[in-house]
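Per-record layout

source: Microbacterium hatanonis
name: Prephenate dehydrogenase
length: 365
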Amino acid sequence: MALAPRVRGTVRVVGAGLLGASVGHALTALGVDVALDDTSPAQLRLAVDYGAGRLPRPDDAPSLVVVAVPPDVTADVIERELAAHPGAVVTDVASVKLEPLRALQARGVDLSRYIGSHPLAGRERGGAISARADIFIGRPWVVCRDGETTAADLALVEALALDLGATPIEMTPEEHDRSVAVVSHVPQLVASLLAGRFVDAPDGSLRLAGQGVRDTTRIAASAPELWVQILGANAALVVDVLDDLAGDLSRVAEALRHPDAPGARRAVADTIRRGNDGVERLPGKHGQNRRFENIVVMVDDTPGQLGRLFGELGELSVNVEDLRLEHSPGAPFGLAEISVVPDAVHRASEGLQARGWRIANNTHD
């Protein structure tokens, strides 16, 4: 039986793009009354047609307003919604928190009912048509409270995050913007710069691309218009990280320019090793810094093979902690890279081979 939603009453969502419509889908699925609004009538109608909520009514009295608009108009919309709905708590889901807050403070807006927030969720493609109710599940949702935030208002915004399956994390706006510069904004630029090298690359080179380069450049498919706004709003902190990164790149380039010079090989090795150390710090499954080992299984490209593989791993009492699929162009099979706990590696490899599976990275022969 589905749990009752923590958020009660009407929730007004302003902005019917990817995040706004996704909030609408998730809350509507829980039985919450969602009133959608957007400056684009076509976008609004599309989101409503897809079931993300209903059209707004003049008598709406929302308990919560979620502002999900581009960063360059976030402050304007927050100010308008605070004035239009005096009984509502107003939050926003913009990916930058300091700039809209400072703009509102400079205007003298009463922010006692405003709480900035940001779900660390998204997709490369935006718009209502790309929205999904499950986009927030298991994702961090930063909530930026201040000294004026009441416990009840804070609880309402955290209830929104919990209803959507996210994990609320309290941060100051400064902590948030510094953090996303490192884990979101600079990675977007790095992925875009790397993918930009492909524009003039020979076709033959691109045919060699494997899953590694696809993983590193996946987010390069993001919308330029939105990212111009995001990066501009967090420019100073992004530049700090870029300057440090540029220094790292220069040191590696210098080492490779003279690879036989004393210390050159160590400089390259230290760069790779520091990357290893950084990856080790990333939270894994369920937020744990727990490392897994991988088994690469060759899977025929025919219907039902992945289902059979998972079923037989279950029979072997092996839990799949993570999965990555790679397809080689023109090959009649794919590679399933399965992450398992270290003590399950031998059991999984031996058991799968006994059932006729081919293990590409087998070390137990």
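summary: The longest strand covers residues 293-300. The first helix runs from residue 18 to 29.
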